[in-house]
Structure formats: structure tokens, C-alpha cells
Amino acid sequence: MMATKKPIPKKTTAGKSKTVSKKSNRSWGEKIKWFFIKLMLWFFGLSIASVVIFKYIPVPFTPLMLIRAIENKMAGKEVYFDHDWEPIEKISKNLQKAVIASEDGTFLYHNGFDFKALQKAYKSNERGRRIRGGSTISQQTAKNVFLWQGKSYFRKGLEAYFTVLIEIIWGKERIMEVYLNSIEMGDGVYGAYAATEHWYRRDASSLTPMQAAGIAAILPNPRKFKATGSSSYINRRKERIVREMRAVGKLNYDGK
């Protein structure tokens, strides 16, 4: 009789499938990890490059300008936009002192953050008083030029990051120059050149202390308040700012 051949049992592939699954999981994990690494590298590279570029060239527009234009368009309002760059040498020293007196008394001395002002604002808000901020001119500039409006922790974190960058790369005088050329100073009015023309029909280099204080006084809400024909509240702010301008003294952006 011929011996019958026993069938050879097939080797199981369970072990192989588990190995492939583990490799696949590791592969996806590696891809995700490298995706985020590349994303962060691109972010740091582009953010630093943009800060370096704007150290030397005028900032043509800001996110807020675009947002305001969209808001007015959606509301059926006229899209009014007035913005011209003015070198800091042609911007009145009175206006420079006025915004320091009004917005950031320690601007010439801090490194981008005024922690005492932040603590004071936090305590004031905690007691249920009128919400107030503790942002410096450097922080406001970082927000205006590179970011959007809002109060999320994510945006505040980015604001702190860009504040450090502009303090290191730009320096105080350039920060003031960009600030005075980008900040909202009326409804559709951005920067010192447009603001002085809009409110006083004169150039940015010839503002009196009271006129400069008038522009600085409306910065908390420039679409609501008026620098001329002002309310009693704004007039009191003007007088206080003029007094505090005297304490600013000589503008020494080099810190020497």
C-alpha cells in the first residue's frame, strides 16, 4: 500500500499581522510627530523672518484693518480706510509722549512686559470693577501687526512670543514707530499721519501737547470717542495725559 502524505500545516500569519500593525502604528506616529516638528519650524522661521523684514520696511496693513473692512462691508456701511506711513522723525514728540503717558508709562524701561500693571489690572478686574488691561505698547504692537483681536490664552501666548521678538529685533524706537503707524485712531483711521489729518487737519509733526493728548485719550475706544468736540470724560483724560507727559521727560529710546 502506498503511504498517504499528511498535509503540511500552514504557518499562522497572526504574528506577522501583529508586527505589521505595530510598524504601521509607529509609522503613523512618526509621521504625525514629524508633521508637527516641521510645522513648528516653519512657524518659527516665518515669524522671525517677518519681524526682521518689518524692522526695515513699513507695515502696509494689519489684520485689524482687514477685519474692520469686512465688518463694515457686512453691516452695509461705507468701507473707509485711511492709512499712510510716516517716519518717526516726522511724528510729533508730543504724540510719542502722549501715548506713553496714556498707555504705558514704563515703556522706555521695561523689556516688553509691565508685570506690576498686569497684577494691578488683574486685581481690579477680580474686584468686579471695569475691565482693564495691562498690555504694554510693545504687546499692543505685536498684537496689531501680527495677530487678531481676542482674549484666548492661545492668542495671548502668541502675543507674548511676538513681543519678545520685536523687543529683541526692533528695539524701542522702531516699536514706537510701528505702533504710531498701525494703531486704530478713529473709525477707519490708522496711524499718526491719518489721525492728525482727520482730527486736526494738520501734519503729524506739528501737534501741540493738548492735541496729542486728544488722540491718546481716545485710544481705549477710538471708534466711540472723539479727539475733537470731546465729551467731558475725554476732556478730563486729555488734561491728565498732558500733566503726565511732563513726567515722561526726554525720549531716550536707546536706554542710555
TrEMBL record:
HAMAP family named in the record: PGT_MtgA (MF_00766)
GO MF entries: glycosyltransferase activity
Classification via NCBIfam families: mono_pep_trsgly
Protein name per its UniProtKB record: Biosynthetic peptidoglycan transglycosylase
Highest taxon above the source species: Bacteria
Cited function: Peptidoglycan polymerase that catalyzes glycan chain elongation from lipid-linked precursors.
Stretches that traverse the bilayer: 35-57
Keyword flag Transmembrane: yes
This protein's UniProt keywords: Cell inner membrane, Cell membrane, Cell shape, Cell wall biogenesis/degradation, Glycosyltransferase, Membrane, Peptidoglycan synthesis, Transferase, Transmembrane, Transmembrane helix
Pfam families the UniProt entry points to: Transgly
Glycosyl transferase family domain mapped to chain residues: 81-245
Residue numbers spanned by region Disordered: 1-22
Ribosomal protein recorded as keyword: no
Catalytically driven reaction(s): [GlcNAc-(1->4)-Mur2Ac(oyl-L-Ala-gamma-D-Glu-L-Lys-D-Ala-D-Ala)](n)-di-trans,octa-cis-undecaprenyl diphosphate + beta-D-GlcNAc-(1->4)-Mur2Ac(oyl-L-Ala-gamma-D-Glu-L-Lys-D-Ala-D-Ala)-di-trans,octa-cis-undecaprenyl diphosphate = [GlcNAc-(1->4)-Mur2Ac(oyl-L-Ala-gamma-D-Glu-L-Lys-D-Ala-D-Ala)](n+1)-di-trans,octa-cis-undecaprenyl diphosphate + di-trans,octa-cis-undecaprenyl diphosphate + H(+)
Phylogenetic placement of the source organism: Bacteria, Pseudomonadati, Bacteroidota, Flavobacteriia, Flavobacteriales
